[in-house]
Design goal:
Structural class: alpha/beta
Strand order of the largest sheet: 2-3-1-4-5-6
Distance between the termini: 6 Å
Low-confidence stretches: 11-62, 65-69
Mean pLDDT: 73
CATH topology: Rossmann fold
Number of helices: 7
Radius of gyration: 18 Å
Largest sheet: 6 strands, mixed
Order of helices and strands: EHEEHEHHEHEHH
Number of strands: 6
Strand content: 5-15%
Number of domains: 1
Helix content: 25-40%
Amino acid sequence: MTLRRFFAVQLMPASHIFQTPKKVASDRESENGISFTSSNFEYKICRRHPTGGWLPPIPRHREEAQHFPLQYDYVNTNCLGNILDFVSHELANRHSVTKQYSVYLVGPGVWDSVKQHLCIHPMYDAAHKEYPETVYELLEMTLHKLARLAEENQSLIIVWRTSGYYDGDKRGAHVIDEINRMARNFISEWNAKRRADGKTKNFLCLDFGAAIREKSQGQNRLRGDMQAHYSLEVRLLQIQMLVNLLYEQGHA
């Protein structure tokens, strides 16, 4: 299988978010026909940059996507609730965004453990009368939505990358441990059922959290530019792990 288009949702600190994310999303709607009901989606469109760097805004006049060997697009959000919003939108709108891609990478971050007070979510799946009481309930809802998306679009490879850790936050590390454990178990059980039914696996787990845990705190930390970030070597490790996973599963 040849991967042509790559789509990522990455949960990142606020310093990586445009000052006016709503306006950014609004500016994209007229060009893409994309309309999100949730609040904080920031698009990074990287289709013509040979290194995969950011290239906003989208050119008004561009060649068809199939003319490019690889397409990498990026949505920057903070909290699990944003992922739930995005996937709920995709399910309700016949995969209006993800149907264009080969791989959908979901990379949770540390906000739901470090800055839960900032993850009070204004919009969520309308089918639920009340917002989930715990981050674990929210995670379970999100994983079920992603599994449903994988079932409905079996040509899409969904990869859940387990989270790294915030330097110095031991309490939050336990939350991240549990989030990562729940995600691993959910995806493993989902894939076991797929195998039993004779179906291919297109919802995968990239266990970055386990790989980096011992290099995440204090003097052992492979530090980046802030407490939530890792060094360049760790970022390259994530890329290598992703390529290996796709190769091992016959997707690259």
